[in-house]
Structures are given as C-alpha cells and as structure tokens.
Write a structure and sequence with these properties.
253 residues; 8 helices; seven-stranded parallel sheet; Rossmann fold; globular
Length: 253
C-alpha cells in the first residue's frame, strides 16, 4: 500500500471475537469496529452480547455459543458467517482462570481450563481456516499471558494453557501462513477485567504489579487497541508466529 495510513483500515473485513461479552474481548470488538470491520461477537452470555451489539451498531451481530462445544462448531461457523460472510479475522479472547493451587487442582477445573484456553482456539480456528484459505487472507490472534513464561501462585492450569498458546501460535502459523493466514498472539499484562478482578481488588497487590513494569502502571483498556489492530490488519503482512507482550515491560524486568 502506498499510503501507510491505510495499513490499519479494516473496512470490508469481518472479524469474529470470542469472549466478547467482557474484558479484553469486548474492548477488541470496539477497536475492530472503529477501524471499519464488521464484528461478530461470540460468548455464552446473551444479555451482555446484546448490549455490546446495541452499542456497536448495525455493522455488528452476535452469536451466543460455548466455544468448547466442538460438536457444535459447524453450527457456529454457519451462524457467524450469516450476517456478513465468513470472517477474515478471528480473535480468541475467551478464557478462564480457576486459580487453584497445585495441591487443589481438580480434574474438572483442569479440563475446563484446557478446553477453553487452549483447545478452543485451535478447533475454532480449524473450522474457519478453509474460508480464509479460499480468500488468501486471514488474521488469527490468540491471547497469551504473563503466565506464558512466568509461574504465578494458583496458576498451574492457567499457566500451562498459556504456555501452550505460544507454541500453538507458532504451529498454526507454520501450518497456515503459506495460505495467507497470519497467526500471532498478544500477551497482556495486568488489565482491569473480570478475569483479573481479584488482583485489582487488592490495592497493594495491584500497586506491586504496576511497580514491576518498566512504565510504572498497570494496563488501561485502550492500551490493547494499537497492538491488536496491528496484528489484525495489512500492517502485519510479514509478521506471523509471534508473541507480542503488551505488559508495560513487566516481562522485561
């Protein structure tokens, strides 16, 4: 493109965002819509999805669905593709953190964490990849974490899935980037979301996390916009298989 300003323009593209009912998934939906994309919001909670799409307007729609339901993925693919066509962009923001210590991890908690945080991003992507291949263009963004590379108390199941996301991202890039599908991951630091609510409810702990960053503060929701749009747009045409930490330099110290 001759005009660098057009690199981030998503007009005419359709984005599907899982975990869009709250947190960084919800923020991603707004950022993508502001860049011109049609947005399909996916999550389990219909009231929150309805509220989101009412705010986003006519270039948005929602599908209430549990992305861990592998047998239902053909139905999800059809429902997501109905309003604006098959998605060009896929954001995997759905996630869970049971916060069970190693001695307290249950089989059910472990399985639910792996199913949502690690298995769903792959199988949902696998369902949409053929349509992206046919267009010769696609963007998939997984969500990693500080726990992709660091161990936190009570995070053994969550951390295992987020470490897996890093390798899954590389493997998906190896498999599909030659067909025009770039696959990358964002690794957020501490942002004020439902998932991190226990952290921000403890002012001392939140302050310690802020002090750990190079910038000296925790994340604000708007901090995710630029990195996300970069990885979803023409700007990242030669970037794939990468993990971009959006953590204020937390992992640099």
């Amino acid at each position: 493109m001759d005009d660098p300003r057009a690199l981030f323009d998503l007009t005419g593209k359709t984005a599907c965002v899982t975990g869009a009912s709250s947190g960084l998934g919800r923020r991603a939906a707004f950022a993508l819509a502001a860049a011109g994309a049609n947005v399909i919001a996916v999550a389990r909670r219909k009231p929150e999805l309805l509220s989101l799409t009412e705010e986003l307007g006519e270039k948005s729609a929602f599908v209430a669905f549990d992305v861990t339901n592998r047998e239902g993925l053909p139905n999800l693919r059809n429902a997501v593709s109905a309003p604006f066509g098959t998605p060009d962009i896929l954001i995997h923001a759905a996630g869970i953190n049971t916060r069970q210590s190693a001695d307290e991890v249950t089989a059910d908690g472990w399985d639910k964490t792996l199913a949502l945080n690690l298995s769903a991003p792959f199988f949902v992507s696998q369902a949409f990849a053929p349509a992206m291949k046919s267009k010769g263009w696609g963007r998939i963004v997984n969500f990693a974490s500080l726990q992709t590379t660091r161990a936190f108390p009570g995070g053994i199941a969550y951390g295992a899935t987020k470490a897996g996301i890093a390798q899954l991202t590389r493997a998906m890039a190896e498999a599909w980037s030659s067909d025009g599908i770039n696959v990358n991951a964002i690794g957020p630091g501490f942002f004020p979301t439902e998932l991190t609510q226990p952290v921000f409810e403890d002012p001392d702990r939140a302050a310690r996390n802020a002090a750990q960053t190079c910038i000296g503060r925790n994340g604000q929701m708007t901090d995710i916009d630029g990195p996300l749009l970069f990885l979803c747009s023409h700007a990242s045409a030669y970037v794939t298989g990468q993990l971009l930490m959006v953590d204020g330099g937390y992992t640099a110290k």
